[in-house]
Amino acid sequence: MITGGIRTMWSLRLSAGWLAVVAGCCLLLAVPAWAGNVQDAVITLNHIRQQLGMQPLQLDSRLAQAAQAHADYLRLNRMSGHGERPGDTGFTGSTPPERAVAAGFPSRHVSENVYYSYGSAVREAGVGSKAVKALMTAIYHRLGFLAFGIDRLGVASSRDGQQIVTVFVMDNAAEAALCEQPGFSGYGSYYYAVCADAGKKVDAALWEQSARQIAEKQPDWVVWPADGADDVTPVFANESPDPLPDMAVSGNPVSFSVNPARVDKVRMNRFELRDARGQLVAARLLDDRTDPNHKLKAGQFALFPLQRLAWDQRYQVEIQADIDGQPVEIRQHFRTAHPALPILTVQQRGATLHVARNLHDFLLYVPPVADAPQVIESVSLSWRGIGALTHRMFDVNTVRVHMEQASARGEASVQLNAGYRFYLRTDR
User: What is the DSSP string of 347-370?
Assistant: First the structure.
């Protein structure tokens, strides 16, 4: 089984004269490996932001250096997450801000995402775009990439034969530039511990203005998936802290967030998702009041379908809200992904699926219904009349299978999670 994971969003919240650290969160997914070339990740992330009318992120060599240092540290020490321990091989700073400063970045107000994979995924050719798409399925991770106040990005990956680690570090140029100017002196409100020199005081009004400079260039609000987006991942699973702690699997959430630099107040009146037949999709709406982890801020909303979305289906998003007292209605659509392989759906335990003997690569999809695994944790194959069967995880409910030299009477048994069994039979 291929396993992978993501940890994301170490962020810094500011208040006059003090700085508080908000711990990160993590996501475990069955996802493809990182290929070692970060260009695909940057292109994909900026494409997503530009689909939403947002400014693209510009690469910063200092943030990339901080990202590389942490990626190497995690790989060398077989660790995950945002922390580092003094004395460990490759240590450059206990926290993301410390590592950014060590790399020469003038501001400590950085956020960090970490993506990792291991096991058989390391041997596969992968692309950075799939890593970004995996991060975008989880709401806390997604909102980090779609933050209105960032415009700089550093990305780096580190790999060996056992694991691949990729780190994203983000900040904005206006705050960094302010940290390079003379410090605040005199009377009034100020921030400290926000620049490389932790004792340096920064005028509060200038700092807030610098933060708004970036956000004011962004749209009033964004909805993801974007209008007309296709190849949208249909499933969400297993984020920590978990926004749906009572569910193992759900559909990829639809998010709506307003830009606090351009919008003062929003009231959500209706947020719905409909399938291709126009039927309402059962869903749970989270906001800053109903989010069980209290990570969503005012003006951030996430609509979670209570069941995994279907492959290759058109969905329509309908939103009605009052934004700064003005009614706004949004209608847009997106289409879920259709893999470039045939999909064989397992309808029930003990089912027999017929496979053409010349079909060498296909997907086995096990919908997460009551009598099936909600998440595939293990796969065991046995066969006769078939030269070889190999497999790898495609997503949490789907297995990719490669079949060689099948006869007209080939048979295979597939067992999932030590108990759920079904069968394959090759046809002429």
Answer: -STT-EEEEETT--EEEEE----T
Report mean pLDDT in 10-residue bins for the chain, 428 residues.
34 28 34 56 94 96 96 93 95 97 96 75 60 87 94 90 85 94 88 93 91 92 97 88 93 97 97 97 98 96 97 97 97 95 95 92 95 93 92 92 84 93 90
Would you state the structure tokens that stand for residue 381, as one six-digit string?
A: 């194959």
Q: What letter represents residue 296's amino acid?
A: L
**Which amino acid appears at position 379 of this protein?**
V
- Give the C-alpha separation, 427 to 403, whole Å: 13
Q: Which residues pair with 427 in a beta bridge?
A: 356
DSSP per-residue string spanning 380-397: EEEEEEEEEEEEEEEETT
Rg (CA), the chain: 23
Does residue 76 sit in helix, strand or coil? helix
Contact 48, 226 (CB under 8 A): yes
Coil vs helix vs strand at 343: strand
The model's pLDDT over 20-36, given as tens digits with 9 standing for 90+, comes to 222 233 343 333 343 34
Sequence-distant (≥ 6) Cβ neighbours of residue 256 within 8 angstroms: 221, 222, 223, 268, 271, 300, 301, 303, 319, 321, 330
Buried b / exposed e along 340-355 (16+ C-beta atoms within 10 A):
eeeebebeeeeeebeb
Whether 144 and 114 have beta carbons less than 8 Å apart is answered as no
What the block records as the tokens of 425 is 């039979």
| H/E segment holding residue 244 | none
